[in-house]
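Dear Dr. H.,

I hope your travels went smoothly. While you were away I took the liberty of generating a structure for the chain from your last submission, since the lab meeting agenda had it listed for discussion. I wanted you to have the full record in hand beforehand rather than looking at slides cold. The sequence, exactly as received, is reproduced here:
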Amino acid sequence: MKRFRAIMTVLALNVAIPASTAGATGPGSFTCSGGSSSAMSTIPAGTYAQVTVTGVCHILGAVTGPAVGPNGTEVITNCNVPGGPVNILGDLTVTPDGFLDAASCAPSVTVGGNVAVGSGGTLILGSEPFLVIMPPVPPFPTLCPGLVTSDSIGGNVSSDNALALIVHETAISGNVSLAGGGGGVNCKPDLNLSVALDSKLGTEGPTPAYTDFEDNRIGGNVAITGLQGCWFGIFRNHVQKNVILTDNTFKDADAMEVTDNVVGRNLICFGNNPTVHIGDSGGGPNNVIGMQLGQCSPPLPL
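The corresponding predicted structure, in token form, is as follows:
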């Protein structure tokens, strides 16, 4: 199984321009524009009314590097400038084809409102030991052993034909709703992801788009439908309501891994290809208070 995970290669920094006007009282809005996979624009530490990402952007955090941990398990590349917390009182919006890395340098991010990712957009949020790079076989080197962020979103997370969402260790008060997207049923390298994600550490190769939710606390429902991509996984999440996974199609035969989740209501899975399974994740069964229906009926195949 190719457990695709992300760490970013940041070769240079650009700082975007705040959208607030002179003399305004209270936090202003911020638009992060410009940037490229090799020279990302930076959202500086601070408090904002809302943030819009139109370019290729990142948020710096606690991690500085480069550094390599014991036995090559820690790989951090070019998070050379530490950053402080980013507090967004309202919404975070990644516009069509925008890109935001709010994970690899372990930043602290709080969003009071909703998070929305537009067509072709990418969001990476939250850092933990399970955020890993992509070698061909296990063991999977972790981004930063022992370092866990505690990001939070006060509203919903939604996407409309987004390219990729990778969310770890985040408290989401509302619903998660992903509709369509994923970049197509293939594992072809994505230009931004292949350069921006750390895809040059030897044999792991270029990085395709994927979607992954791990170790999150979600207060509403999770509904993911119509994704077409390379790989998908959902692990160790605590979801208060329903999880519904329908009509998703992936190229990797080991995609659709759904394990170790705690679901307060029902776990419903229909029309996914490949079928929902445990794979080589090493995971266990889901703990579901209500019904487990369709492809999610226990026991899940390996």
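Two observations you may find useful: Residues 1-15, 66-75, 132-146, 200-204 have pLDDT under 50 and may be disordered. The chain has one helix and 32 strands.

With kind regards,
E. W.
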